[in-house]
Amino acid sequence: MARTRIPNPLERRHLIEKELSPDQALGIAEAYLAEDRRAESAIFFHKAGAGERLQELADLAVEEGDGFLLGEVSRIRQEEAAPEVWARLGEAAERLGKLRYAESAARQANRSDD
Description:
Elements: H1 9-17, H2 22-34, H3 38-47, H4 51-64, H5 67-77, H6 83-95, H7 99-109
């Protein structure tokens, strides 16, 4: 099976730093997603202005109990996920046996807004 061409790490860094058209950024994001590299795809979905695709990644993170991915999407959006979102992620993580993500999500859900 042929693999989709994704940028090497140095190329990725340059692409992140330069201006891209929304179509270019979306194409790169889709290439990363095709390789199941969701965190990298999120960066380029953001550059493409594809907020709905970022939301899909956040929803997938919650569904799959993937605290890392939700954290990355939140960081990219510069918008922290709500405590109830973290709580749902934690429940999914626990159900799926991802105990470290479940513990981390519980801390995020119980964090005060100091």
